[in-house]
Write a structure and sequence with these properties.
59 residues; alpha+beta; two-stranded antiparallel sheet; 1 helix; 15% helix; elongated
């Protein structure tokens, strides 16, 4: 399940910033949502767009 963090969180093997969207196991995601530190992200995932700027060339 994908969630958006309401606060920064870190542990032994992870570190997330407030506002970051992360994919978690459903059980962990539900725990974080119930604890009030995350909200579920619903809807289609938007693919990250690649940079469309081309390097300048002389000529």
């Amino acid at each position: 399940m994908k969630v958006k963090l309401k606060t920064s969180l870190s542990g032994l093997d992870f570190s997330y910033k407030k506002g970051e969207e992360v994919e978690l196991e459903d059980k962990k995601a539900k725990q974080w949502i119930e604890a009030g530190v995350a909200t579920e992200v619903k809807g289609k995932e938007q693919p990250k767009k690649a940079s469309t700027t081309k390097p300048k060339t002389d000529g």
